[in-house]
From TrEMBL:
Belongs to the 4-toluene sulfonate uptake permease (TSUP) (TC 2.A.102) family. One of its GO terms (cellular component) is plasma membrane. Keywords: Cell membrane, Membrane, Transmembrane, Transmembrane helix. It is found in: Cell membrane; Membrane. This is Probable membrane transporter protein. Pfam families: TauE. PANTHER family: MEMBRANE TRANSPORTER PROTEIN MJ0441-RELATED, MEMBRANE TRANSPORTER PROTEIN YJNA-RELATED. The keyword Cell membrane applies. It is a multi-pass membrane protein. The chain crosses the membrane at residues 12-37, 43-62, 74-93, 113-131, 151-174, 213-233, 245-262. Its main location: membrane. InterPro entries: TM_pro_TauE-like, TSUP/Inactive_protease-like. Signal peptide: none annotated.
């Protein structure tokens, strides 16, 4: 095993830790790690990210469920429109994006560049959400109409499909603000949505891409170890402080990706 691979596997452990601690953000690390450190094409990287984050989140869901921190009814309500959008995006939309988006003089915007820049923009928005200090929200009996949940699920699912992200960093604030779920339960509930979205989205990629299963399964197994450790450590670490720190890291990572792709 060379040093690059070793660093990649350490990164896989960190991906799991982040998912276990804050319920999202795994793909924010996974995609740049696969693209910039391990040299994978962004299309492959986003596909692998869906599998890694989805499988790891499945383990995290079980861990959170044992603590009573998963609202399955709300999670499944969001999951249904989301996984439809994710699957259709990965199966039909991403493969049909032209290799060259546009050319202006000597500058050419390729499909891979466009996906990474869009990914970075979503990271920027997510970082502001994580950095912004919010008050813990108490559960209420108010339930929004399902058509709103359906539209929200479709929207986030499409974004998830395009950037190869599980969407946890989008679903946690959505569950708090739209579904009136307290923060800790929103983190747990987001994991079941991320699991369903990611794994179903990945089935769309299996039909169009050649997968390196040995590497992918090894990377995923290490991430699973990370999420088990992350869920355990979440009992001792302040979620809000960690979320803010990760938000700052995400902001810096997003700026780096935009610089790297546009230079």
């Amino acid at each position: 095993m060379d040093s690059t691979q070793l660093i990649g596997y350490v990164g896989a452990l960190i991906v799991g830790l982040v998912l276990g601690l804050i319920g999202g953000g795994g793909s924010i690390l996974t995609v740049p790690l696969l693209v910039y450190l391990l040299g994978y094409n962004p299309i492959i990287a986003t596909a692998y990210s869906l599998f890694v984050v989805g499988t790891t989140s499945l383990v995290g869901t079980f861990q959170k469920y044992k603590k009573g921190l998963v609202d399955f009814k709300t999670g499944l309500a969001f999951s249904f429109p989301s996984f439809i959008a994710v699957y259709l995006s990965r199966r039909y939309l991403v493969p049909n994006i032209p290799d060259t988006i546009f050319t202006f003089g000597n500058y050419t915007l390729t499909k891979e560049m466009a996906i990474m820049i869009f990914f970075a923009i979503i990271m920027l928005l997510a970082s502001f959400s994580m950095i912004k200090k919010g008050k813990e929200k108490e559960a209420t009996s108010k339930i929004q109409p399902y058509y709103k949940t359906f539209i929200q699920g479709l929207t986030i699912g499409t974004i998830t499909g395009l950037i190869g992200a599980g969407g946890g960093f989008l679903y946690v604030p959505a569950l708090v603000l739209w579904a009136n779920i307290p923060m800790k339960k929103a983190v747990g509930t987001s994991l079941i949505i991320v699991t369903i979205n990611s794994l179903i989205g990945f089935t769309g990629d299996v039909q169009t891409l050649e997968i390196e299963w040995v590497f992918l399964l090894t990377f995923t197994l290490i991430s699973i170890v990370g999420i088990i450790l992350g869920v355990f450590l979440s009992k001792f670490i302040s979620g809000e402080k960690l979320k803010k720190s990760f938000g700052i890291f995400t902001l810096l990572m997003a700026v780096y990706i935009i610089y790297k792709e546009l230079k």
